[in-house]
Specification:
By secondary structure, the protein is mostly helical. The chain is elongated, with a radius of gyration of 19 Å. The two termini are 27 Å apart. Bound molecules: zinc ion.
Length: 122
């Protein structure tokens, strides 16, 4: 991949990273806020725990994406960015434009979603 293009992806990744870090922080603040509010009737409590549930799954998603972004930034630095982690083929540029932190090409992503890809996590 040419340096200019790589730099663009790096900039994009850093922007997403900062955005997500801000979101995770706000979500955690909001969760603590909801915890402090003790003067609630049971209906409020139920909706509060629903909200917290929602926030929790949302922040889990954000954290997962953050992790993928950080791994992608590492690949930018070690020069392997843009290669599929599974088969080593170049990831389609269109896919990288949409999801610059995508670790797999479309083919391997599908395998992964079907649980057919060996888990390469440490
Ligand atoms: Zn692949």
């Amino acid at each position: 991949m040419d340096k200019k293009k790589l730099k663009q992806y790096e900039t994009k990744l850093n922007e997403y990273r900062n955005m997500l870090l801000g979101m995770v922080e706000r979500t955690e603040d909001y969760g603590r806020e909801a915890d402090r509010d003790v003067s609630q009737d049971p209906a409020d409590k139920a909706s509060n725990s629903y909200t917290k549930e929602l926030l929790f799954s949302q922040s889990t998603n954000e954290r997962n994406t953050l992790k993928l972004i950080e791994e992608a930034l590492e690949r930018v630095h070690d020069g392997s960015f843009g290669e599929c982690l599974n088969c080593g083929e170049d990831i389609q540029p269109k896919r990288l434009d949409a999801i610059p932190w995508a670790p797999y090409c479309i083919k391997c992503q599908e395998l992964q979603e079907q649980g057919l890809l060996a888990d390469k996590e440490e």
